[in-house]
Design a protein that fits this description.
Keywords: Coiled coil. This is Translin-associated factor X-interacting protein 1. This protein is rod-shaped. About 5% of the residues are buried. It is an all-alpha fold. Among the domains are: about 60 residues, no CATH class; about 70 residues. The protein has six helices and no strands.
């Protein structure tokens, strides 16, 4: 009985020892894994330290580069700002002149010449700046300065469109002035003929009929003929009027009465 109990106790103690030994081995394996993880983390820390040192060196070089290029950037920004200010001043000048001109052909022609000269100077400045763009502008500010240059170019194109509009309006006013001169000459000739007929001797009814036919003829010509033909006709009529003659007129045919009337 005692032997059996002793054997059973020994077996239990052995089983407990086996379990403890297994746990010890498992803990030793985990400790080794943790040690390897710590070693790996130390290695990664060294690599990160080297990376940080490299980034610090690169940042120092970039800072030095930015300091070297700062003068060029400042000059570029000043050039762009100066160009924008000039373009804005020119746009304001055009607006002010537009309010003052009031469609006067002479003023429009003078303003057109001034705008062309100013636009040529600004275009030359833009071309010169674009030629030296790569030399003066660092890559870090390339997009910003390019955007400013595009804005200036769009403003330049807008001013060019306004100048073209001034030129078109000037040409249109010239045509209107020429047409008004033609209509004025025709009106003066018509008034002269009318006064000449009224002052002449003859039957008042015939005078009235002649004047009516004359006025009807001029109204029809003005409505049917283009301005170019009317200009030539006005020149001929002025010459005829100055010679003291009257225009030959054809009386309109009256409708014949029927036999039943």
């Amino acid at each position: 009985m005692i032997n059996a109990v002793s054997i059973d106790c020994e077996n239990r103690i052995k089983a407990i020892n086996d379990i403890e030994n297994a746990e010890i081995k498992s803990l030793e394996v985990e400790r080794e894994k943790d040690r390897q993880k710590i070693e790996k983390m130390r290695q990664e820390c060294k690599e990160l330290s080297m990376l940080v040192d490299g980034l610090k060196s690169e940042l120092a070089r970039e800072t030095e580069k930015q300091m070297i290029e700062s003068d060029a950037r400042k000059l570029s920004i000043l050039a762009v700002n100066d160009l924008n200010a000039r373009l804005l001043d020119m746009e304001q000048l055009v607006k002010n002149q537009n309010r003052e001109l009031e469609d006067d052909p002479v003023k429009l022609r003078i303003a057109l010449g001034q705008c062309k000269k100013t636009l040529a100077a600004v275009t030359a400045k833009l071309t010169e700046y674009e030629c030296h763009f790569e030399e003066t502008v660092p890559l870090a500010r390339f997009e910003e300065v390019l955007r400013q240059l595009e804005d200036s170019t769009r403003l330049n194109e807008k001013l060019q469109d306004e100048i073209t509009g001034y030129a078109n309006r000037y040409d249109l006013l010239q045509d209107h002035c020429a047409a008004l001169n033609t209509y004025r000459d025709l009106y003066m000739v018509q008034c002269g003929y009318t006064l000449r007929v009224i002052g002449s001797k003859g039957d008042p009814n015939q005078k009235l009929e002649y004047i009516g036919i004359l006025l009807s003829r001029w109204r029809k010509l003005i409505n049917d003929k283009p301005v170019e033909e009317l200009t030539d006709m006005a020149t001929e009529e002025l010459a005829r009027y100055e010679s003291g003659a009257l225009p030959p007129l054809v009386r309109p045919n009256k409708p014949k009465k029927s036999a039943h009337d």
